[in-house]
Design brief:
153 residues; mainly alpha; two-stranded antiparallel ribbon
Amino acid sequence: MKINELSKIQPSKTVIPAWSKKLTQGYREGNESAVEIATKLDFISKVCTEAKKELSEAVIKEIEAGDKTKNGYSLKVTESGVKYDFSKCNDPELKGLEAELSELSKKIETRQKFLKALPWGGTTIVDENTGEVTKIYPPAKKSTTVPQFTLQK
């Protein structure tokens, strides 16, 4: 795919799979490795993210000035990622609850570290209060294998 072909794109949900196939065509034809294409796509993604950040303020102004549709997109300005700062509320009940949560979080973290260190076959524990015997096991591990790209220069 040539870079000048990008200007011919008519954005639409239905053409996304076709453009995806076009971008990976070199791999399917044996002209480029999957890693070569994937690293280029990662680079393009980073460039696009940076360009969108650079344009963000101007885009908001244009949308607010009346641009409600463009290239098949519906456009609007919305609030995103609203966060609240409770530090100045001076609420003693909230402070107490946060302290309890902090203490519980530390206890949970300590217990999780203990459970991670258990042998694969588990171990038997005895509840000192009730005398109940329980066999406990380490947590199951889950992971996903993904490629990681780090641009060196």
